């Protein structure tokens, strides 16, 4: 039977680029965005000057663009930092705007600082981006004819309003986001155990890993040692920690191709409802009569442990000066940060020069596009540039239609609300969708604050296209190493995490510390695999060898995940009438994983390694042999990328 020719199908990078994430609509974020951006316009229009409302709503944009789900303390730090950075950048742009001798070096300097501080973490990265965006945006505000202090006052008013909207329900909802995160773990457990198809259960396991990571991140970020809500946070964190054995046993059952009784799935659903409502947990279902197999016994024991809770040690806060030293150390030892900063600074400088040399109205949009697209830690530069261009063209069409229909007054307020909601949806679905809604919103805001609406539409289109061209040519095509595959290090790190998990999971945990170490090793392995999958999903949108080889290496990721699941299946049976594997067999497994990691890092074929022949670990050995076969396939140093894709695409489809 013939197989379809890969070169006749749609390019893999295009399919991945245009794919929308299948996540629920974040209605709470949509509502906050609508209120934050549309209410100032409505009030100002009712007062007789909608242009003032447009200037105020501009100040609300940093919080809307930086919005993220999570605990209130986390969101307060994220949104507060982004708003403060945007305010500082906006002031710098206002003070230097209209004078190129001052504005150009200011924007370039802010771009460099924005890229460097991104190494401090995701919140710092978002703050740096907002600082750059609103610095550039402010350099064009002199065209309004409004005094600097008045513009800055309107911006601060909008910023304060958006923060109030984002955090207004903190006092009444308290730990609601954390409860939702923990409850979601039980929902995903029920979904995974309910799946009857292997492919569906594999996707459900990925979603369970994401839910666990999210819940731990939110609870640990909530700083449970603080007074006031310490007991509530600690209760949820202990509950999540106590759920780990049930998670391990559930993964083991799915990996073995078995499903528990309906009462177990119903119990997880009931646990989710109880956590959301803050009610006592329901009692676990009774153990089935007879002598259940070790995996099923481990699952029921895990259900009992959830009800008993877990004694988890309180994490001590990290002093701010230690975090500052760690960030400074990462800068000193991180050449990739400085390379990314240099690339962003160079492209921003080029955009500023183009804006000075080419007679374009409101040419600061060129620099704005470069700064948004070329953020070093937000995914594929190529993908963001293409999606930004596509989204802008669509957005300009929407904006032109609005202006062409002569919309004004309350119609503009309603349309602004629609665009604001679209931004919130686009943030979680697809970057192109977000750009398609951001564009008409900015067009309306600038059109209300400036004169010449049609010129705003045309300038937005031309300047965005020029900015995307600068990024694609100088930040991607001509930038050294931007199209060269960089997958070995991440793959090897994932293999190291799995090897560490093997060394902890396949021995008997006779103490609480040993069980805690095993739990952390399991979370570390699955988190590393989840991060690896995310990184490769970002890479496959590249049309270069980087993207094609990411597709070719995908079977290795699938093999790593199956090895981890097989280890979990063996680990949950230890101590339940089943002795641990021979230590020599465990050493053979970790040595084999170490050889795989070394082969990937050195871009060579792995050497044949002795593997255990014990029946107890036969499932792990089978999956490990598949991992060896997958690593022996792609050769990054010598083989043609297209040939790799053709060779491994059928396997990729099966996995």
From TrEMBL:
Transmembrane segments: 29-58, 79-102, 108-138, 150-170, 381-403, 409-426, 433-451, 457-479
Alphabetically ordered keywords of this record: Cell membrane, Membrane, Transmembrane, Transmembrane helix
UniProt topology in membrane: Multi-pass membrane protein
InterPro entries the UniProt entry points to: Memb_transporter_dom (IPR049453)
Domain (Integral membrane bound transporter): residue spans on this chain: 351-474
Record localization: Cell membrane
Similarity comment text for this entry: Belongs to the YccS/YhfK family.
Family matches, as PANTHER family: MULTIDRUG RESISTANCE PROTEIN MDTO, P-HYDROXYBENZOIC ACID EFFLUX PUMP SUBUNIT-RELATED
Protein name (record): Membrane protein
